[in-house]
Amino acid sequence: MHRRQFTKLLALMACPLPASVLAQSDGENWTEMFAEAVREYPWLAAWGNVEQDRYEADAVVRGNWPEALQGVVYRTGPAQHEIFGYRNRHWFDGNGMVHAWRIDGGGVRHQARLIETLKLQAERAAGRALYSGLSGAPPGQAGLTGPNDVNSGNTSVLFHHDRLLALWEAGSPYEIDAETLETRGIYNFEEPGGGSSMRGAPFSAHPRVDVDGSVWNFGYASAAGLLVFWHIGADGALRKAGRIAVDPMTMPHDFVVTEKHLVILLPPFHFRPAADAMGFLDMHEWRPQDPCRVLVVDKNDFSSHYFLELPAQWIFHFGNAWEDRSGVIRFDGARAPDPSIMTQTFTEIMRGNPDYGRAARHYGYRLDTRARTISEESMLEPGVFTEFPSIDPRVGCRQYRKLVFLSQSEADLAEHGTLNEVNLFDIESGRRDWFRYPDTQIPEEHLYAPRPGSEPESGGWILGTAFDWRRGRHIINLFNAEGIADGPVASAELPYAIPLGLHGKFVTG
Amino acid sequence: MKTSKTISAFLLIAALGAYTQASAETLTIVIEDIDDATGILQVQVMAGQAQFEGEGAVAQFMEPAVAGTLTFTAEDLPPGEYAIRIMHDLNGNGELDTNFVGMPTEPYAFSNNARGSFGPAKWEDARFVVESDVTQVISLNP
Questions:
Q1: Which of A139, A348, B22, B70 fits a 20 to 30 Å CA distance from A39?
Q2: Do A12 and B60 touch (CB under 8 A)?
Q3: What is the pTM of this model?
Q4: Nearest residue in B to A170, CA atom
Q5: Cβ of B64 under 8 Å from any chain A Cβ?
Q6: Closest CA to A5 of B44, B69, B32, B45
Q7: What pLDDT digit, counting tens, does each position of B67-114 carry?
Q8: Could you tell me the CA-to-CA distances from A47 to A347, A375, A499 in Å, in that order?
Q9: Domain assignment of residue B62, given as a range
Q10: What are the structural domains, with CATH classification, of chain A?
Q11: What is the ipTM of this complex?
């Protein structure tokens, strides 16, 4: 009996990854290389190492913060990039820091704390960097029992059923106290019948909130070759989960939800772990000759699904999606020709190589669920590169016409060479209004904040943070959505700056 | 709480025809950081890489779990290379439970506190030499 059990243990555990992430460290001192680069390119400080494990300050406010705008911008992002002297080899490997920008009747107060992940605690106990990341590995690295060993909670947040969760790409959510920002630990959704089969199952960083307040998400388990789909009720409990085998597996980052379907793009970045891989990205092979597969799943029955094909492409983020009565789905996304911004740019920037690159252009997609066809078309003029699309949350998973996103224009790049424009784009009219940030500031994701009592996509604000690298200050700016080109109508500035984060949510109230 | 359990490897090894050494050593296995006093702790001692990667064991233990530390003793081990696997069968269903994507959801550990990479520890990391009496201290929740 014992033999059989242990044999099962081995069989279960033998299928996953080889020991490839135990490849040798590169032995280079990136901390020194980066410090040298920052002296020449001071804006690289936006990718520097966080200096404290917590922050709290009243921001110095300017302009007119409207009384009607009350709520919190919760954000997360990689912040601790250097662990006892070892500088991470990838931007996304940084230990996560969660932020709250509390906006209340004209005052703005900021809090931030490093997320007390299992990874952070293990590193602190060991007094050194322990784990391989997306790229590279520290000397004498430890093995991994599963993705949550390296889950940094650094990618996005979800505020659902009065619960704040910090999300990562391939592991479990971390629950964060919404008031103190203390880490409560790994969060497991309540399962029907008190089950525990979803514990540790991957819950990706870009869940979608449906009109009924329920939440859809997916997750990928590379070694198992499985995509997992989640549906969480508005009451916070798991309604259902499903699995779909995908071969070859890839690294999907985001997906879209319509009235009837879930749609997920599977770029040809094939999971093919090699024995000498240096980090997780290195276990993948980009195959531009292969199609980008499109998985279309019935919301009501995850077992009902099919695949379509697009030309090879890489997408981090989608704006939104909706489906008309004839079964035609329209969605948009920031489409790159290949994953080099992730595989090269975001590694090089950690070394201090200042060539940020220009990757993604905004595309619209038309998917006919009856004819089972899909087509794509550029939404903006050539030379405009986009990222961080967001929408009025009231139109999530439904018909929409306004998009907020960051961009950069080939003909008018910032000194820092990264995204420097914030846009409001009207999909129906094609009108794009934008504000160009001063070159001393690097904007982060900007979010649509509805004005209380207003119609969807009308009369709202846009809230966004930015890193002022010249003054070493973090700021939050407020725009009138319909007057975005006029620039911020109000701002608030902190006495410090924190390395660039990734995604957030505005929570009204 | 400490509990000591002792087993002689003599009979098991003799039965396998592997008992060729005149000397016999004692292996003490101290399992620490047992978080939960429910369920069964299963401990398996394997002789050599083939057995570690295949089937069978030279010593096996199965005891109700206690919170804290449990100690097991395997006696009469001939000198050689060994490795240990431990699993904490929390719900006593006789299996290492796994989640929706096949990952273990019950605690497990290996000798030397070796950890695998998204999988079981490698023989190279888990193996240890028995030349004289030896103690392995293994954390169940590293």
A1: A139
A2: no
A3: 0.89
A4: B101
A5: no
A6: B44
A7: 999 999 999 999 999 999 999 999 999 888 889 988 888 999 999 999
A8: 11, 37, 5
A9: 4-139
A10: 20-508 (2.130.10.10)
A11: 0.73
